[in-house]
Amino acid sequence: MQAKCMGTKMVGMGILFNPSRLRVGFTLIEVVSVVAVILILVGIITIRLGDLRSSALSTSARALEKEFSKGVEELASNGVDLGPLQSAAASGALVSQMGSDPNYMSLQSAVYRLSSPEAANPALVSGALTQLNTLLSGRGFGLVNGAVGPELLAAFNADLVVVRDSGHSVRGVYLRLSKP
Questions:
Q1: pLDDT, greater one: 22 or 88
Q2: In the chain, what are the domain boundaries?
Q3: Which of left, alpha, beta for 13 (phi over 0: left; psi -120 to 50: alpha)?
Q4: What pTM does this model have?
Q5: Which of 6, 31, 61, 109 shows a CA-CA span of 20 to 30 A to 91?
Q6: Binning pLDDT at 50, 70 and 90, where does residue 33 land?
Q7: Where is pLDDT greater, at 152 or 22?
Q8: 46-62: b or e for each residue (b if 16 or more CB lie within 10 Å)?
Q9: What sign does the CA torsion over 94, 98, 99, 100 have?
């Protein structure tokens, strides 16, 4: 059997070819598949960016805690009265008074809630940092760096922990940022 050529149609071995019916484009299934893959990738990227943001906030909180404790240690080692920090702590709501806490080597500790994500209070937290910076700068020490912004306080509880020995003298004041 021989193929015959008739104008634009070619007939042979059961194949019809009509160039006028040739269409360029995508089918609906192809378009939907591509959109679905793009949406999945966007979802994965969004989740990953959220994790990175949370990690950055956590790192910032830990750095602020570390600087705060270093500042208090410098003051305490030079015999400075930590009364202003205690008054800043007392301006928050007293959350708990604990006997011995393994985190503070069995010393008495009082935990003052300065802020929580439900009741974010940047003024109280920055007030405590300002009091510490006033004490530090007045004694010739470095200042505590770090910003307490609404984003940080929307993710963490901010507590001021005052640690005393058995004679009720202050042994340390710590800023503690913790997940609710």
A1: 88
A2: 28-178
A3: left
A4: 0.61
A5: 61
A6: very high
A7: 152
A8: eeeeeeeeeeebeebbe
A9: negative
